[in-house]
């Protein structure tokens, strides 16, 4: 077993690794990250995760629910550190996995991956406490500066393979699978399918003799024209489907998905503009790089200023226009706590994914991860057997998932897996019952 | 292990929601009594649940109908309704009943409903179903027509937030706002509109929600600190979060209510703490004191505030502990000068 594998094992048990090893791993990580683009290209299938915030045991729960790395291809949208008890172990584990399996895990930067923010919100103090000096914090901050600002998921299918329900209605389910494609599926707590949105046009897609013009218009980019080769968001791509599939088979292509921690920027009207930024620096207080990590979608028209006096809010029209211009079908972002773990907005053109259950150990929220399936393959992301096993372990839990707003069809097939916080034990979490004391 | 010492000060002895195993005093409260019952009915579930697959659809050219809101099944209702333990913990001593209830933050539907009621977006962590209440009965004195009077003073997030300035007339700005605005002016001339201006620090001067039959009048009496300093046994204690916001990582804003009940008296402290990094610190305390034997109910309201710069100077000697202290309202109260105190006495 290599030193790196040993470090991964140790971190999986939530035990910090020696300072010298941190230095070495951070150095190696930087070598890998420096080669990555500002907007890293990631092939589907991929599982997209939101904020973690040092909630190590919940990160372990995430891996249990979503599958282990490298079996599952992961994309984390930042905010690994601060607020939780184990920022150090959480970030180092993700970083070790990045060094060990660079093609199976993508890390992009959140607004908390910054020197200024980590000194205020916990990560700095945690490093001092666990190592007695700021060295480890410094190594980590140097890595932060090299993290990508976003990622573009290409080759996602328009549908996901329906998950067998816990109650196992195999026959009927199979009939349905043959006729409809599942565009959105929500797997609630305990692995129970709580919601499936079907794409009615599925029957057409499945027929063998279809022509491109017969395809439903799955994205805002208009009819499927000649398929150009190129990455969405670059001048080389002529449509939302991205790189042409073999035989020009256009079926089940969900278009590209832009992943970014916060949101859009008025300075950025194309994905290419993100590529032009010089990202290797501390997160600035203004400018495009700042906006990408800080801005929020809001029910407004156009752009707005946050009442806080800094930061942008962007409305539905901005997202739709950006997606159209860049041949995107979805923007996935994190940054905002959502009680339900995820929230689709603006006719499903943007989604917030939140992966820190029971945030700060007191909010009682559930978390979610977003699975995007593979183009044209109806790939099973995880075997049915595992899901059933998961169900059995968790039958006492029940799911209720609320999806806000009306759903307009379009975009990639997506499966949200909703999960709860790992069981709290004696690992230093605040107990649920407060300790009485003589406050005045 | 070291994590405990550090975060104990940050998160304090706060907790999340009630747990059956440790709630000996838990008993169901009538739901109708609660002013803000959970908006369970606003949940929507798709008919295509795990137990009832949808009718198969043919490849017709008909536009797909909108997702049909379906009735909740009994199983699902159970999942979203607060269970009996969520009704709270309660204790009755000396004729006074104290109830606390702790539930998770509001879900999307509840947040929507609250936003509509308030006219402003609630804080990021909004414990809209949490509540602390003190209830008492004033016995009729025997005069003809006199009846027992039940009074109640309650603390909840909705009423606290209703007192937040919703006009934006007195709005604070984050520290780097000026620099940010200046940089922006050159680049985005078109973007001028501030979205829904309001006091986004959620500063409130909430002193509790009081039943109509009780009113508070100014008094010279003081809350007897000597009695409260005595280590009388604590029969009941709780710490209930009402809301919390991270001010988009520019500080913190938090309103929580602590209560301790001793054999002869009780003390409640509703503390609002706000730190806007490099700008200001603010504490607003409401204390409710009840002396059971006398039927005395006092309410004290205090405001404390100072600039970030001043506080930072005062905290200099604490060096590496400064960030932790700045997260802890209970320590910060020592460093913020008192701006004013009002003591009132309850009259029925």
Provide structural commentary.
- The complex is a heterodimer of chains A (440) and B (348).
- Chain A is α/β, with parallel strands linked by helices and 440 residues long.
- Helix content of chain A is 28%, strand content 17%.
- Chain A contains 13 helices and 16 strands.
- Chain A has helices spanning 3-12, 19-35, 56-66, 87-100, 115-121, 123-131, 135-144, 170-179, 202-206, 271-275, 288-294, 316-325, 384-393, and strands at 39-43, 46-49, 74-76, 105-107, 150-154, 181-187, 193-199, 256-260, 296-297, 303-305, 312-314, 328-333, 342-345, 350-353, 367-372, 414-419.
- In chain A, the strands form 3 sheets. Chain A has a 7-stranded mixed beta sheet with strand order 4-3-2-15-16-6-7, with helices on one face. A 6-stranded mixed beta sheet of chain A has the order 1-5-8-12-14-13.
- The termini of chain A are far apart.
- Mean pLDDT of chain A is 79; it is low at 168-179, 201-230, 235-251 and 377-409.
- With 348 residues, chain B is of the alpha+beta class.
- Chain B has one domain (8-16, 73-347).
- Chain B contains 9 helices and 15 strands.
- In chain B, the strands form 3 sheets. In chain B, strands 5-10-11-12-13-14-15-9 form an 8-stranded antiparallel beta sheet.
- Chain B starts with a helix and ends with a strand.
- At the A-B interface, helix 5, helix 6, helix 8, strand 7 and helix 9 of A face helix 1, strand 1, helix 2, helix 3 and helix 5 of B.
Nearest-integer average pLDDT of chain A: 79
Question: Largest sheet of chain B at a glance?
Answer: 8 strands, antiparallel
**Helix-strand string of chain A:** HHEEHEHEHHHEHEEHEHHEEEHEEEEHE
The shape of chain B is globular
| Overall radius of gyration of chain B | 24 Å
Q: If strands are numbered along the chain, what order do they take across the biggest sheet of chain A?
A: 4-3-2-15-16-6-7
